[in-house]
Amino acid sequence: MPTRVPQTDVLLTVMGAPHESDLITSVLRLSQALLESGATVQVWACGYATMLTQQGLGDSKPRNLAAWSTAYPSMAAVVQDMLAAFPGRLHWFACRFCSDDRGAVAHIEQVPTRAPAKFAEHVAAAGKTLYLGVM
Amino acid sequence: MTAAESTRALAIVERAYRGTVETQFSDALYCAFLFHRHLGGLDVLLRGPAVGYAARAARTPPLRLGGTTFSTGTEPGQGLSVLLESGVGVWAEEPDLLAYGLAGEDSLLPGVRSVPGGSMAARWSGYRAVFFL
Predict the structure, then answer these.
(1) Domain formed by B3-132, architecture
(2) Which domain of life is it from (chain B) (predicted)?
């Protein structure tokens, strides 16, 4: 079934990589603030941001040797929780080329992949597009 | 060079705040603890924005994400405290402390020492290894 491009107030295009800075923290906080204020949001993950939603991440991070019984959610779980909290108002897409280029080929089912050629459709469907980070 | 220094390594941390949500506990300081345990001792030099790790007043506030509270973000101050308690020497460069408003007497976590900018380079030859973390 073809992926429907949602009409949203904002498109957040995540170009920068996780673990390099607090960029992803900013993406999540910005999304949360927008959603709580009533706006609709779609995220397009490019580059290494496609690693955030891999099924292989499971629900939790590897164990912390210093806090064995503490649960630390994986990024896939964090994204899943956010999508579940804002049904129909938050959408998360992964760039297919960047995913394939990194072997990130098994996204969680809530995150469809999209060909780079379709990116313009998402820009057109958003009231405002923000680019976060650089590839 | 002292005998104690000759077995130790120096880890320089100058890139900071790398992935509070995705990294959580497994940051450079967590890695530093493992190096300290397994490589025969470690000292840490904080430079640039990483001097903020030593700020006594720093806190990692919980985040509201989705319908839940996310409270396992990276806490570098706690990471440094673990290192200090386990015998890791922690230094922070003075020009960067000044730049980030941490030059006050009580600004730093207990046990963190300040050094003039670049001065640790004079001690490199006393370490078994020097690397960036």
Answers:
(1) 3-Layer(aba) Sandwich (3.40)
(2) Bacteria
Query: Which residue from A75, A68, A85 is spatially nearest to A107, judged by alpha carbons?
Result: A75
Q: Which residue of B has its CA nearest to A70?
A: B72
A2 domain-assigned: no
Range of the domain at A109: 8-57+72-132
ipTM entry: 0.94
Asked whether residue A119 is domain-assigned, the answer is: yes
B18 chain-A contacts, CB cut-off 8 A: 19-22
Q: How confident is the model at residue A2 (pLDDT cuts 50, 70, 90)?
A: low
In a domain, A65, yes or no: no
Tell me the nearest-neighbour CA distance from B44 into chain A, angstroms. 20
Number of domains in chain A: 1
Residue A5 CB burial class (10 angstroms; 0-12, 13-18, ≥19):
middle
Q: What confidence tens digit (pLDDT) does each residue in A71-125 have?
A: 999 999 999 999 999 999 999 999 999 999 999 999 999 999 999 999 999 999 9
* Per-residue pLDDT, A63: 96
Phi/psi for B69 (5° steps) reads: -100, 125
Quick one: pLDDT band at residue A68, thresholds 50, 70, 90?
very high
Cα A13 to Cα A91: distance, rounded to the nearest angstrom: 12
- CATH classification of the domain holding A44: 3.40.1260.10
